[in-house]
Design a protein that fits this description.
Helix content is about 25%, strand content about 30%. It has a six-stranded antiparallel sheet with strand order 1-2-7-8-4-5. A two-stranded antiparallel ribbon has the order 3-6.
Length: about 160
């Protein structure tokens, strides 16, 4: 009987620990991320363009030539990924097809603003990165991601 009482108390405690007001709100997080990005841009005197109403910004540091990448283009690029505090989490070279879903949505949209030879920084709200999921030990949930990218080739 004591075991049943203990179990009921534990179940009750578990339900009480669940706060219904802590439900993740993607639009609220996007507003927070937009504010963080615009403050970062202002604090660092960076001029950047926004892609539609996504909250994704890009700042081109070197113009390229030719047509921009588009859906089904194969993009070969060098990149360095880091957080707003400067913590680097990845770097390398990648070859991906725009629209295939093999990269984060922020890249799917951001690389369509770039052409061969272009170098830019992409400022990606968490919604278009890894969202509310933590990635390893270096990317916390709901992180704005920054990527310095150079488009080596578009095929």
């Amino acid at each position: 009987m004591n075991k049943i009482k203990f179990l009921l108390v534990m179940v009750f405690a578990a339900f009480m620990a669940c706060d219904s007001e802590e439900v993740f709100d993607e639009q609220e997080q996007l507003a927070i991320d937009r504010q963080l990005i615009t403050e970062y841009l202002a604090d660092n005197n960076i001029t950047a363009e926004q892609i539609g109403e996504t909250g994704i910004y890009y700042a081109i540091s070197q113009s390229g030539t030719g047509d921009n990448a588009e859906f089904a283009s194969s993009v070969y690029a060098d990149y360095r990924g880091y957080l707003l505090d400067g913590t680097e989490f990845d770097s390398g070279t990648i070859d991906f097809v725009v629209g295939a879903g093999s990269v984060i949505q922020g890249w799917e949209l951001g690389f369509q603003e770039l052409n061969k030879g272009a170098s830019a920084t992409l400022f990606i709200p968490s919604k278009y990165g890894y969202g509310s999921s933590r990635q390893g030990t270096t990317i916390p949930a709901n992180s704005v991601l920054l990527f310095d990218v150079t488009v080596v080739d578009i095929r």
